[in-house]
Amino acid sequence: MSDARLPAPNRPDELAFLALGGVGEIGMNLSLYGYRGRWLMIDCGISFADDTLPGVDVIMPDPGFIAERADELAGLVVTHAHEDHIGAIPYLWPRLRCPVYATPFTAAVLRLKLIEAGLEHQVPITEVPMSGKFRIDPFDIELVTLTHSIPEPNAVVLRTPLGTVLHTGDWKFDPDPLVGATSDVATLRRLGDEGVLAMVCDSTNALRPGEGGSEGDVRKSLISIVGNCKNRVVVACFASNVARLESAAAAAVAHDRHAALVGRSLWRIDHAARETGYLKNVPPFLTDEEAAYLPRDKVLLICTGSQGEPRSALARIAEDEHPQIVLEEGDSVIFSSRIIPGNERAIGRLQNRLAGLGVELITEQDHLVHVSGHPAQDELTRMYQMVRPRIAVPVHGETRHLMAQARLAEQCQVPQSIVTRNGEVVRLAPGPASVIGEVPTGRLVVDGTRLLPSGAEALRSRRRRRSPCRAWARRRRTRR
Ligand SMILES: [Zn+2]
Ligand SMILES: [Zn+2]
Prior knowledge:
Layout: E1 15-21, E2 30-35, E3 38-42, E4 47-48, E5 58-61, H1 64-67, E6 73-77, H2 83-86, H3 89-96, E7 100-102, H4 104-117, E8 125-127, E9 133-136, E10 139-145, E11 154-160, E12 163-167, H5 185-194, E13 198-202, H6 215-227, E14 233-236, H7 242-254, E15 258-262, H8 264-275, H9 288-291, E16 299-303, H10 313-318, E17 332-335, H11 344-356, E18 360-362, H12 377-387, E19 391-395, H13 399-411, E20 416-417, E21 424-429, E22 434-438, E23 443-447, E24 450-453, H14 457-464
Parallel strand pairs: 3-6, 6-7, 7-8, 12-13, 13-19, 14-16, 14-17, 15-16, 17-18, 19-20
Antiparallel strand pairs: 1-2, 1-21, 2-3, 4-5, 5-23, 9-10, 10-11, 11-12, 21-22, 23-24
Helix pairs in contact: 4-8, 5-12, 6-7
The structure holds zinc ion (2 copies).
């Protein structure tokens, strides 16, 4: 679309917010702030496709609007290392070519992804410290440490002469996060005293009453559950939850077991975590090959695949197609994760396969084996009470989550809430917040090495769907 058809999306005398992804959906976050003819991007993520896009793995926002004016893009600040915040950088950076700012752990994870994409020498990453202050003209930036389900979750403060914005990123108030500091409430209060124009905030759990729960409680529970397991134990979790990896390792040590990692993404996170000073007290993890030689009651396997992803370690184990690991009657699998909506059927299939092998399933339905990384209503309320913004902009949620947060903000006496959509340009200042225009948006999917608009994928994907039959997979029993 040509500029002539666009409203003025970035008038020099206005502060604007514009999401190209992550609003009205959970995943593929890409936010832009415009001021004085410059744009600052916060996060650049992907979503994983579900059953509705067969053959497609990865979806991301179409960055066309900002790619067309990449010379106006001052930089990309990354809040944390989850795929829905950094996953699109290897695909989209060649069209953006801007400096990238991240804290050490996030930078380490991003570098490993860039190495895989062959971009490690091209993307200029500036490592910034936790609580760091720096300038990306025309914005003065400050990071605020929060807690989440990955090391180093940061909120981003953007200061301009027209006002201060707090972009929370993903967060919760975990009193015992296990990895990293607790949320920096002193700075949040100071910001509130200083005066915050707008808070752009995580809505994932805005429908959930109460508090989200703590990683510290999950650790205690995992240690006790593993104590009751007789044979092999598998803990299936998200690779990036370093606190959870540490807890699984602690449960292994407590019951004289050795912890092993099964799955490539786990090794990638292990590398990034140890390189940046995390997992210090955790002995090196065993490989799946090493674990295969241990007696059944001496091993704890940490696996990827808790969402039923067909090519993950746990799915291959359930299908008896894993070259090293076998599960059988009397073994236990702990699903230390929640069911991401859209994955119910895949997880159901996986759990049925495991149950058919005689494996005991332990899930969050009957045990404390998972807590969410996002704020429930009481945490959101506390955040609003501290920050006291003039405008609430709910993001990181489907429409019902955004509406729920807007209602909550109203109860917290926030004068104005604005529920927006991807592509809408929201003027935050001067004057009351309002939608002043709309820019084109879309979704891209990965087809081999190319990016295609979503919709073109169905035809192509059928052609390249992989055969589920892996007759060559060698069956090998672990030794007792
Ligand atoms: Zn997220
Ligand atoms: Zn996250």
